[in-house]
Amino acid sequence: MRKALLASASAAALCCAVAAPAHAAPPPPPVYNWSGFYIGLNAGVGAGDTTPNWTQNAFASPFSLFTVGVPPNANSRGFAGGGQAGYNFQTGNYVYGVETDFTWMNLRGTASTSPFFTGKGDNTASWTSDYNWLYTARLRGGITIGGNWLLYGTGGVAVVDVKDTALCVSPGQGCGSSITPAFPQNIEWSKSSTLVGGVVGGGIETMFSPNWIFGVKALHVFLPSTTPGLVTHSTSFLGPVPPSFSFDHNLTLVTFEVTYKFGGP
Questions:
Q1: Which end of the chain is more exposed for a tag (fewer CB within 10 A), N or C?
Q2: Where is mean pLDDT largest: 1-15, 20-34, 175-189?
Q3: 60 φ, ψ to 5°?
Q4: What pLDDT, on the 0 to 100 scale, is given for residue 69?
Q5: What does pTM read for this prediction?
């Protein structure tokens, strides 16, 4: 009996000694693989910085006799949202790839000054810019932190749809040519343009499961200027009306993104 008890105790101790390391060993860390094709949705805010500039010189008819003010900036703010897709390659802690996105925007900015044509009465000039959509095609590259975080920079080409409008309204006379007696006057310049420019930016992403990624991205877009042509003017306005304003554009977007990556870890 005594030998049987000793044998049972030894067997139990051996069993515990073998089992203990198995329970004490930590689970292996998850492996995060950023390589592969991905697609997702984004939403955020956009800010357009539009600077109107007076382009006429002192001898340009019909504005040659009038001094003018300085147009204020027409800053646009609003919602931006759309989708993105791309492909990543991972080498060690480095991730690089290509990405394209399309974003709908509701950005509208208006500024006005009264009077703009000084010495010509109670005229009001206003400038408006509407940013409607943005498309980008970019390279990107970054480094992983802790395996499931990615910090990256990006740059490429941007295409933006924007409409610029300048309007001068005068209850008496003051938008340009002098007439006697005075009549109400108005002039409108407007142009819808698809502009091609450059884009730079960066972001941070986290892979919270083998296939799902959440991130925040900021893009800054550099765009060429536009010069809207004449749309309409009142019949009381005398003389030809040349293009008189140019618009310089910059655009910044900050978006939150949810992305699905195809393929396993």
A1: N
A2: 175-189
A3: -85, 115
A4: 78
A5: 0.81
